[in-house]
Specification:
alpha+beta, five-stranded antiparallel beta sheet, 30% strand, 213 residues, Ribosomal Protein L22, Chain A, four-stranded antiparallel beta sheet, 2 domains, globular
Length: 213
């Protein structure tokens, strides 16, 4: 079910889908003339979960744009639209899928289910110089991970080390806000603005290249 469709203040189009349908339910949400084509493509996907993610993403994209769009993947796995008219970023987590589109700028989006598993992994992607609020440790660490995932997708560079090349400037998490980030992987050493939201079930982050400082 499409639970969110909105234009961001910087020209993006954002959508979130709650994946509570079955594979068959999602197929029925495709326009009739696309249903058989989608069903035939599903035969290449063995996992039931991956099938649902694949279907939900494409149904959501149709709902966002009001027309059929073909999603292709580059050699590194990053998605792009066949007609090349918009940049796209896609993310999936346990029960949700998210899409961010922009006509002229590269984009990155990430959605993560809230879980304490991030605590055990935090040392692999958060540097000693980055600030984590001890009163909000789990959600703050998860926001760092999600933000760096969004940047990784936006930058589309090989060999990015989250701990070494991506830095989140100090901030204290609230329900909805922005954080500043910078990268040291490229010679441009760009700075970014990352939008974030904290929901009861998940955190969401996204960034648009036009926000680069």
């Amino acid at each position: 079910m499409l639970i969110r469709k909105e234009h961001t203040e910087n020209g993006g189009l954002l959508g979130i889908w709650k994946m509570d349908e079955t594979r068959e339910d999602l197929l029925q949400l495709f326009p009739a003339h696309l249903r058989s084509k989608a069903n035939s493509l599903l035969h290449t996907i063995r996992s039931e979960r991956r099938s649902i993610e694949w279907l939900a993403t494409r149904v959501m994209l149709f709902n966002l744009l009001g027309k059929e769009q073909i999603i292709l993947n580059r050699e590194n796995g990053s998605p792009y639209l066949a007609d090349g008219k918009s940049h796209i970023s896609i993310s999936h987590t346990k029960e949700y899928a998210a899409i961010l589109l922009h006509e002229t700028s590269a984009v990155g989006i990430d959605i993560e289910t809230r879980s304490e598993r991030v605590v055990k992994l935090a040392g692999k992607f958060i540097s000693d110089k980055e600030y984590i609020d001890p009163a909000q440790k789990v959600v703050h660490q998860l926001l760092h991970w999600s933000a760096k995932e969004s940047l990784f997708k936006l930058m589309n560079e090989e060999g990015i080390d989250f701990r070494q090349h991506l830095y989140i400037e100090p901030f204290t998490p609230v329900v909805k806000g922005v954080m500043a980030a910078r990268e040291t992987k490229t010679t441009q050493m760009r700075k970014f603005t990352i939008h974030y939201e904290v929901h009861p079930d998940y955190v969401l982050t996204w960034s648009i290249e036009s926000d680069t400082k």
